Structure formats: C-alpha cells, structure tokens
Amino acid sequence: MAIAFAKPSLRPLLILLAISAAAALSDEERVADLLSLQSRSPSGVIHLDDNSIRRYLASAKPPRSFSILLFFDAVQLYDKSELRLKELKSEFSLLASSYIRNNKGSDGEGKIFFCDLEFKESQASFGLFGVNALPHIRFIGSDVSSLKDSEQMDQGDFARLADSMAEYVEAKTRLTVGPIHRPPILSNKQVGFLLLLVAIMTPFAIKKVIAGETLLHDKKLWLLGSVFVYFFSVSGAMHNIIRKMPLFIADRNDPSRLVFFYQGSGAQLGAEGFAVGFLYTIVGLLLAFMTHVLVRVRSRNVQTLFMFLSLAISFWAVKKVVYLDNWKTGYGIHGFWPKSWN
C-alpha cells in the first residue's frame, strides 16, 4: 500500500550536510555502537531514525564490516489487515532475536544488524531509500554505497514469515541464522496450572465415562457436529482462515456501501462462502430428512407433499449456487438432456 509523504522540507538537505560530521566515526566504533543498541533492545531489533541512518549508513563508506536488514514500518497502517505489518514486524523481531541467540560469541556476531524505521519519525530516510509502499524490507550490504542501490526483499521472501526471511539472510550474507526460536504457546505457570486442573478433574471424568454420561455419548452433539463439519467443508471456511479473507469490503466507488459478493474468480469474500455453504447445507439437511425421517411417515399424502417441497427447495438452492458461480467466473454451466429424451 502506498504511503503519503508530508510536504517537502529541508530535513534531507540537513541530513546530507551533517554527513561530514559523522564521517569521523570508524567502522569499529559503528559496530560497537550498534552492538550496544542491539543489547538494549528486547527483541534485538535496533530502532533507527534519520540521524541513525546518517550516522551508521549514509556517512559510512563501503566496504563496511557489517550489513543491515531494515524493516520499514508505519504505525498508522497497522489497521490495514491486508498489509500484515504487525505480523511481519513480529516475525522480523523473531528473526533478529533468533540470529543473536544462535550466533552469540561466534564469528557471525556483529556481521548483520536487524533494524526498523518508522515512517512518521523518518520520512526523509524513506525518501532516501525511495520507499513509497509497504510492506518493505531492505537489505543494505556491506559494499552498498548508495542507499537506493540496496536490495529490496521480494514479498515471496517473507511469505513463510521468519523462516523464509532467514533463508534470504543466509543467501545474501552466507551467514548461518540457525533455528527460529518461537515463544511457547503457554508459560510454565500456565502449564503447571493446567496439569493441576487435569489431575483434579481426572477422577470425576473417569466416573462420567464409565456411567456413559459425557457429552461424547450424546447423539445430538454428534449430529450437530456432523452438520458443522459439513458446513465448514462446503463454505470455504478454511480458505477464509488461511487467506484471512474479510467477510465483506467497502465499495471503492461508494465507501458507505458494503460489498458481500466479489465478482471475479481471483478472490472470495467470507460472506459469499458462508452463503454458498448455507445453501449446500440446506440441500444436505433436506436429503437427510427425506431419507431418514420422511420414510417413517405413514401417510402417503404427507410423504408426497414434503417430498416435492424438499425437492423444490433443493432445486432452488442449487440454482442459486450455479447462478453465483456463473456470475463470479463468467463460465456458464448448462444442463443437457439425454438424446433419448428428445
């Protein structure tokens, strides 16, 4: 997504004028400063600004003894879920902390630093790098002289989040990142509490199982569960979860209007998946009703009435699904009569 820059200011000019003042720093001093900043960061990600960019990159003539992987951030875009900025930044932090942990005291320590840059604080630096859209991650190698010549990480390189980012770093630097250390889902206290709770509840659970009084012995629960699994399967719910698709979107031409059905085969909104799943579920329930309930009715007239009613509703539901598929994809689905019927 594109980001809007503020009106031109003198900040880039002031930064360029101040470069000469920072040129006196030696490479060893820069590495020492960066290691100090890294040690003070909880995640190991160094937060940079315009002055830091000038101090550690713009004024440092190549070749440098270190490289930098720079994450461009914008807090004001965190509410744009499609950008996944918060998730990517979290994975970037995992990458940084894992590299530091795996390379502590080794030759790889101090060879690459993981940094971030916030848009509101460092618009001038965004301009120096030529960044106008996010998400954006940039690799500044040790031999890069112009910041705009640094390499942008392709979106495919962070498709698998921290793991694919680690592969990118290893390919560019020939350093070993090592395994990604993700925090445990539960803390030690939470695990201990759960174990205590299980120990207390186990005797009561065994008693219920022996007596056949658990929810797993309830036929209604299994019936509802099977209907839910069927609906989950035919509604594209897994697609919505994996792709993180919204239920609806705002109309581009009229933001006050909501769009629940998106025309085009390239995307599917959550609402239309649930609508199709609901129609399929109706057909499935009516089929189950006709084969398991209606056959037990003694009255032929009642059987006939409900049979035709169920078939009519099923035909209507399938027709709606076919119509939606034709509308979305542009491909028509036609029925053909057998030749013997002509």
TrEMBL record:
One GO biological process term: protein N-linked glycosylation via asparagine
Family matches, as InterPro entries: OligosaccharylTrfase_OST3/OST6 (IPR021149)
Keywords associated with the record: Endoplasmic reticulum, Membrane, Signal, Transmembrane, Transmembrane helix
Membrane association type: Multi-pass membrane protein
Signal peptide: 1-24
Pfam families, sorted: OST3_OST6
GO cellular component, one term: oligosaccharyltransferase complex
Entry's transmembrane regions: 191-210, 222-242, 274-295, 302-318
Domain of life where this protein originates: Eukaryota
Subcellular location: Endoplasmic reticulum membrane
Function: Subunit of the oligosaccharyl transferase (OST) complex that catalyzes the initial transfer of a defined glycan (Glc(3)Man(9)GlcNAc(2) in eukaryotes) from the lipid carrier dolichol-pyrophosphate to an asparagine residue within an Asn-X-Ser/Thr consensus motif in nascent polypeptide chains, the first step in protein N-glycosylation. N-glycosylation occurs cotranslationally and the complex associates with the Sec61 complex at the channel-forming translocon complex that mediates protein translocation across the endoplasmic reticulum (ER). All subunits are required for a maximal enzyme activity.
Family the entry assigns: Belongs to the OST3/OST6 family.
Oligomeric form and interacting partners: Component of the oligosaccharyltransferase (OST) complex.
Designated name of the protein: Dolichyl-diphosphooligosaccharide--protein glycosyltransferase subunit 3B
